[in-house]
Amino acid sequence: MNILVATEKPFSKVAVDQIREIAEKGGHKLTTLEKYTDVKQLYDAVADADALIVRSDKVTREVIAAAPKLQIVVRAGAGFDNLDLAACTERGIVAMNTPGQNSNAVAELAIGFMIYISRNQFTAGTGSELKGKTLGIQAYGNVGRLVAEHAKGFGMNIIAFDPFVPAEAIKADGVEVAATLEELYEKSNFLSLHIPATEQTKKSIGYHLLSRMPKGACLVNTARKEVIHEEELVQVLTEREDLKYITDIAASNQAELNEKFGKRVFATPKKMGAETAEANVNAGVAAANQICDFFATGNRKFQLNK
Questions:
Q1: Please, which residues have CB within 8 angstroms of residue 195's CB and are 6 or more apart in sequence?
Q2: Most buried residue among 85, 166, 224, 253 by CB atoms closer than 10 A?
Q3: 178-197 pLDDT, tens digit each
Q4: Which domains are delineated in the chain?
């Protein structure tokens, strides 16, 4: 089988070398398309691909139409909103992600964000400490659990809300469980977001929740910009001069936020959550292993379009 790695933003050489080793050991051929500048290059490359590994590259209906042999596509990372799952399903293509492989990198960034915003973005002035503050975690999955684990080392009090995780499982980690989303926001000095962008969650974080946060609180977003109601974010930051927002995904109206709220907001120049050498290798290797296992045994453990 021909496994194509198509990455506008490439994996590291170490990661590609390990992906190639796994593919060839499984009896497959590896082809790479790196730093492509035109989607037509991707159309040409997928024409002979049986399997596809991508990072944030968009696997659209058009890409799928250009890949008549494609059987499986794996997004190397947890988020999968760059995959057209409906189009994959129509063609009988298995779509997967690699959950957990980037989790520690994202969790460490979330903690770093809290320190950065608490210390006035490392500029002059008196900051504050994380110790004794309450950290709210919305979505207690792979990343959320690690954020909680790291935050305990700073002496933070931790509360979480996730309707899909049993309360007893959260409590077993020594984490308080919020009865409602409103309670989570009302108690959190820092609120760390880890929800996916779905039809149910898009624009779900807005005035109703943010206005409930304690004085001086900060929303930390390492999830997706689409979950934020950006117009209502402006409204609540205008009314509440004590609130802060720090994000790994620049808002559509980031220029407006920067102009109006100065050091109360911060966005990374580009998404940095998974940008570590370790996460780069972990996600790529996991994708390669999942593809080889799929061809060898039919394993669909991480299939998204069931």
A1: 138, 139, 201, 204, 223, 224, 227
A2: 224
A3: 999 999 999 999 999 999 98
A4: 2-101+275-297 (3.40.50.720), 103-267 (3.40.50.720)
